[in-house]
Amino acid sequence: MPPEYIGYFPYLRPSPEGMSILLTTPALLYAFRAKCSEPTARWLGLAILAVLVPTILWFSTGWVQFGYRYSLDFLPFLLILISSGTGDRVTRWAIAVVAFGIAVNLWGTLWSVNLGW
Fold first, then answer.
1. Whole-angstrom Cα distance, residue 110 to residue 76?
2. Is residue 58 in some structural domain?
3. Under a CB-based contact definition with an 8 Å cutoff, are residues 74 and 51 in contact?
4. DSSP letter assigned to residue 72
5. Is the whole model's pTM more than 0.70, yes or no?
6. Which of 47, 74, 82, 114 has the fewest CB atoms within 10 Å around its CB?
7. Residue 6 belongs to what H/E stretch?
8. How many structural domains are present in the chain?
């Protein structure tokens, strides 16, 4: 369910059932840049899959949420892949992606504090 337009700040209301993990944390895309030829990256990928598959098979949103609720289960392994995928230099693109993620999560925080129904 996409965000709903409202006539006052912040002008969009997120879906209370959750949102895309790539919208709330776009820096996760850097995990795909990690070198798959390294054994550590392969083991991390297997660990992510081992945790992700049962998580995907279970459907329960609980109550109102922002983002993907069950990502905390596999996110520690994914963060290592992200750091490997970003490389040695921080680019402008990486800063922009992280800034976008921070802005989206700030929007979610403002929404959740007010529970803008």
1. 26
2. yes
3. yes
4. G
5. yes
6. 114
7. none
8. 1
Q: Is residue 7 part of a domain?
A: no
Q: Is the peptide bond before 39 cis (omega within 30 degrees of 0)?
A: no
100 falls within a domain? yes
Per-residue pLDDT, averaged over 64-68, amounts to 75
Q: Which domain does 54 fall in, by range?
A: 18-114
SS3 110: helix
Q: What is the DSSP string of 18-68?
A: ---HHHH-GGGGGGGGS-TTSHHHHHHHHHHHHHHHHHHH-----SS-SS-
Dihedral (CA of 101, 41, 72, 62) sign: positive
76 inside domain: yes
